[in-house]
Amino acid sequence: MGSRGICDKVAIVAMGCTTFGEHWDKSLDDLIIDASIEAFSGTELTKDDIDAFWIGTAQSGMSGITLSKPLQLSNKPVTRVENYCTSGSEALRAAAYAVASGAYDVAMAVGAEKVKDSGYQGLNQFPIPGDGTGRTLTAAAMFSMVAPAYCKKYGVSQDDMSQVLARISVKNHHNGSLNPRAQFQKEISVDTVLKSPRVAGMLGVFDCAGVADGAACAIIMRAEDAFKYTDRPVFIKALSFAAGSGSGLIDSTYDYTHFPECEAAARDAYGQASIEDPRSQLMMAEVHDCFTPTELVLMEDLGFAPRGTAWKEVLAGTFDLDGALPVNPDGGLKSFGHPVGASGLRMIFECWLQLRRQAPKARQIESKSNLAMTHNLGGYPGEMVSFVSILGTEPPKT
Amino acid sequence: MRGIIRYSTYLPHWRLDREEIAKFFGQGGGRGTRSVAGHDEDTTTMAVEALRPVVGVDQDDEISRVYFSTCSPAYLDKTNASTIHGALGLDSRVGAYDLGGATRSSTASLLAGFESTGNCLVCMSEIRGGLPTSPDETQGGDGACGFLIGSESANRDVLAELIGSFSTTEEFLDRWREPTSELSKTWEERFGEYRYLDLGVSGFNGACEKFGIVPGDIGQLVISGTHTRASIALGKKLGIPLGSIQSELSEKVGNMAGAHSGLLLAGAIEGAGPGEIIALIVLADGVDVMFFRTTEAVKSWHQPETLGDQISKYDLVPYSKFLSWRGMVTVEPPRRPEPARTSSSAAWRSRRWKFGLEASRDPVTETVYMPPSRVSMERDSVDQMDVAAKSASKGTVVTYTVDRLAYSPSPPIVFAIIDFDDGGRFPVEMTDCSPDQVDIGKRVEMTFRKLAVSEGIRNYFWKARLID
């Protein structure tokens, strides 16, 4: 038994992604339709050519009807999947495996979320009847516990940590400023981050992902068919997923400076794609920067920097757009915004643009590498699900 | 001999400086402080806190009954003593009963404890208040007390026996409250004083005559009643020195109505020497006079923290916060959804955890699961766990955060990850502290609280509080 992956068995031939933001004038259906139209407009395929569909949404809709109704899909296999903030990645995984298995020729993965209709700040969980003993903390509070723990373990001063976290936010805002689809297209200064109102622990408003509505989608088919529909298909080199047991919450040895689920997912994905040194082999990485300390720790979990050193690398600009390994070149959750179910596919969308050299010029990464990575997580430190994908334009060796 | 085996008092962490009231409104208030229940406390949670030190101390402590009295109950129709029963992890064969409505119910709970057989837990708990600037707001107090009443055995002694009680009843209207209101009303003060003085003197004389006691035999006299002026006047009239606890409670804690008599009694026992007679007079729609005699063993038991220490250890709550906790002013809540109501069936299934804080422990790896788990994460085993009671465990803060966005009846939420000394890690909300008092390495213990109320359903669970 083992995780063998589906390296080079399937390819993405078309994608769509709406702008992310406060779409007061758009419903979930509108967002799904807009993303789908963009995907279909880039290929000769129509919705009738798609054999099966998956929609990832955390809590904007139930069942496959969430997708089949707005797209008017008649008696097709349409499934809604949910896996916290990785719901969009989960839709992609299901569609990719379905095609790889030979069950379908063409499949579509959609991720969508309508967050801003709730009337509340931040993200809110759909209440499941329970005994009332579960935590009611915000995600910001749970992730805020990472920063002091990291400081303590690696002897980083609180002032230095503030600078590091602010630097991550500034970088992602800079990248977002070059992205016409991003929620926040504005450069900010370190000072702005440091002076922003506190939300939880040492985290301020500018340490948190943008709360946005949006949708993204991908059309997937067998690798050998891909060139019939696009001259630049993006091949799936690896898909991995890890769900923790929640042990971090009750394990006294867990120290809040790393996310074991993310390490496990990365290890599996690198194995599937035969990546030995992600930092030098990847062109770019999209990672789940829900809060600035999350991105910091992920640089180590994903193997981009040795333990205890990522904070220095952040300050040195390693993960900037022009750095050794650009991270979140599209602005990330921070400035692109985080419509929960859409984010996983939005990350894929940036890889799609970058690998095909179709990103806006100002943020197109110059690289010899044709490999890109997305990392998408859901949950909290200690109780997490994590997804990693590796994508590339190098065609399968036949 | 049947008597009081153990006693315990609980004063909430917070005090209101009575002078704050006049500073804010230009009227009302007074000198000294009053005790204030936290926003996450009600009479049930305070009763649990009061009883925790007196149960499970000795193998002979098998409880047969719980009597809980309050005139500020968390629920009506539903028994609140069953929540207390659950939080204390008592055996299902223990009867648990509420006595409520009138302040005099507390006397009934005490007498019921003495007149029953077996080990009885008696607890009294009150949260008192009134309209801003009112005497009830200023002079009222919040608190609870608990007694274990039973018979002496080889392992434990009676601290004080009940010599006897003497009661009279008289119908008149001095203080009343409509069942749907939280605010009491009173008749003209002089009338109540006239009646209670008369009742007090005749009741005391009647009790002395019945039990052959003369005033000179009495070591400490304590007088409880919601009519403060009548209590003071009666003390003077009887010419017997009042126990020092009487003025201590008035000046620093306030009048806890039904629970006041129990706190006075506990305080008097705590300050008494062997063989001392304590007279407790309760003025409530008549009079109850109870004579207690301490035994040689009276100093053999002390609650973990003396009432004197409880009185002197507190933090002040700003008057503005007090008013919002009491619902007298409504402040803007965080723009977050309020918690959903607790599922009754889910809460029932997990009652040993939710109310009793019973975790599970893998007997092989010693890993503690909170909440309890049926499946081990380290070995291939199902349903091979031991019970691990955690409510009495102490722990250390590993890390913490302050959540300024999450919904709370009194934001911000201070939340900590704690490691218990006897094993287990627990992410838990902190209480009775300000954010700047919490730090990594601080010591904590568990306390039973009300997390939130939704659709009238109180979500009870445990929080952590700092130990000094």
Protein structure class of chain A: alpha/beta
Helix content of chain A: 25-40%
Rg of Cα set of chain A: 20 Å
The main pleated sheet of chain A reads as:
9 strands, mixed
Indicate the overall shape of chain B.
globular
CATH superfamily of the largest domain in chain A: Thiolase/Chalcone synthase
Strand content of chain B: 25-35%
The major sheet of chain B is characterized as: 9 strands, mixed
At the first level of CATH, the class of the largest domain in chain B is: Alpha Beta
Whole-number total of structural domains of chain B = 2
Structural overview:
The complex is a heterodimer of chains A (398) and B (468). By secondary structure, chain A is α/β, with parallel strands linked by helices. Chain A has helices at residues 28-41, 65-68, 87-100, 139-144, 146-154, 158-177, 190-194, 223-226, 247-250, 260-272, 278-281, 292-301, 310-316, 332-336, 340-355, and strands spanning 10-17, 52-56, 78-81, 106-113, 198-200, 203-204, 214-222, 234-243, 284-286, 371-380, 383-392. The longest helix of chain A has 20 residues, at 158-177. Chain A starts with 9 loop residues before the first strand and ends in a 6-residue tail after the last strand. The model of chain A has no long low-confidence stretch (mean pLDDT 96). Chain B has 2 domains: 2-325, Peroxisomal Thiolase, Chain A, domain 1, CATH 3.40.47.10; 356-466, no CATH class. Helix content of chain B is 25%, strand content 31%. Chain B is built from 13 helices and 22 strands. The mean pLDDT of chain B is 95. Classes of the chains: A alpha/beta (398), B alpha+beta (468). The interface between A and B is large, with 37 and 45 residues.
